[in-house]
Amino acid sequence: AQSVTQLGSHVSVSEGALVLLRCNYSSSVPPYLFWYVQYPNQGLQLLLKYTSAATLVKGINGFEAEFKKSETSFHLTKPSAHMSDAAEYFCAVSGGSIYTGRRALTFGSGTRLQVQP
Amino acid sequence: GAGVSQTPSNKVTEKGKYVELRCDPISGHTALYWYRQSLGQGPEFLIYFQGTGAADDSGLPNDRFFAVRPEGSVSTLKIQRTERGDSAVYLCASSLDGTSGYNEQFFGPGTRLTVL
């Protein structure tokens, strides 16, 4: 079984400030982890993914995330927020062996990021 | 190239009616997924196709929901006897190969279904 918990349904930061969006996961098998972004009236877009290679993953638009197995976390960060980063962010998990496990994504409930001028 | 497309973009229907939602995946993608996103929630998995067959339909909420992908490309999600609780955005995604969970899924813009 897999699940994702995103702490904080709303996060507000000032332009230029650090962005930190939290994600904790639960998985009975080694997970693959993803962050997606959803802009208003647009489809989900992949920001970055962890697939058991490097634990620090760099994505698009200056975002990165670090996989910490001991903490079962995959928090998303960006050193300096831009107004254009305002959107809904979703953490997701998939994975499993070739015999079991869900190929589909299990999503968290999302975090809405607001960027104040 | 074209991304995942979904039609219609909006569908308003009355309680008890039948609806069909269509998904055109990216050409060459063998895996196709349907998700449902309610207001303020993350997408929830409904069904996954690998080729023409439904490899995992464990997310379908009940037998009113059914999906097909007869030629391994376009998929149709069918909902019978719609209920107000079916109102949501229905998302379709495709990936190159679904046999591994690490392939990126590309999402369509969704169909917003409203059941009156």
Can you summarize this structure?
The complex is a heterodimer of chains A (117) and B (116). By secondary structure, chain A is mostly beta strands. Chain A has strands at residues 2-5, 10-14, 19-21, 24-27, 31-38, 44-50, 56-58, 64-68, 73-78, 87-95, 106-107, 111-116.
Strand and helix layout:
The complex is a heterodimer of chains A (117) and B (116).
Chain A: E1 2-5, E2 10-14, E3 19-21, E4 24-27, E5 31-38, E6 44-50, E7 56-58, E8 64-68, E9 73-78, E10 87-95, E11 106-107, E12 111-116
Parallel strand pairs in A: 2-12
Antiparallel strand pairs in A: 1-4, 3-9, 5-6, 5-10, 7-8, 8-9, 10-11, 10-12
Chain B: E1 5-7, E2 10-13, E3 19-24, E4 31-37, E5 44-50, E6 53-56, E7 65-68, E8 75-79, E9 88-95, E10 106-107, E11 111-115
Helix count of chain B equals: 0
Give a count of the beta strands of chain A, DSSP E runs of length 2 or more. 12
Distance between the termini of chain A: 41 Å
Number of helices of chain A: 0
Please state the oligomeric state of the protein chains shown.
heterodimer
Helix/strand/pairing class of chain A, anyone? mainly beta
- How far apart the termini of chain B lie comes to 37 Å
- Work out the helicity level of chain B: under 10%
**Percentage of residues assigned to helices of chain A:** under 10%
Radius of gyration of chain B: 13 Å
Which series of helices and strands of chain B comes N to C? EEEEEEEEEEE
Taking all residues together, what is the mean pLDDT of chain A? 90
SSE order of chain A, as H and E? Answer: EEEEEEEEEEEE
Low-confidence spans of chain B: none
- What is the number of E strands of chain B? 11
Tell me what portion of residues of chain A adopts beta-strand conformation. Answer: over 45%
Main beta-sheet annotation of chain A? 6 strands, mixed
